[in-house]
Amino acid sequence: MLNALEVFTTVIIGLMVGVEFSVAFVMNRIFNALPEDSGQLARAHGGRMLGALMPFWYIGSLVLSAVWAIAGWDRPGAGLVVIAAALLIVSVIMSLLLLVPINNRGKTWTPENRPADWKEQMNRWDRYHYVRVAVIVAAFAFLVTALA
């Protein structure tokens, strides 16, 4: 049963990493290349769509990692799982303190009501997101290593 939990957790977190990597290095670059209103509207829609899903994915990933760490405490690699869970905690804290406030504002913007500094706020969100992606990639790498 523990083996199934390990694989399931790794796959779920791997998928989350893939989505977030794609947002950072593919989708936002596409959105930034669109004409101003289209790019801003795409970001707002993405913020609403992913903003509704990601809290469950991040918290769920953290819970799965914690359960794995507890259930497999006496197995090799348990320390790596604890480190991965700690990194996922960092990613959740970063999300709540840095990214979610910007996302909550941005998902309501339209070309008519967006603030003058909307691009600056989106660039700040992108910078924080790059760091968060690095954190969850590291967590994923620790989990994969723990499987070996």
From TrEMBL:
The chain crosses the membrane at residues 12-31, 52-71, 77-100, 129-147. This is DUF1772 domain-containing protein. Keywords: Membrane, Transmembrane, Transmembrane helix. The keyword Transmembrane helix applies. Pfam families: Anthrone_oxy. It comes from Streptomyces laculatispora. InterPro entries: Anthrone_oxy. The keyword Membrane applies.
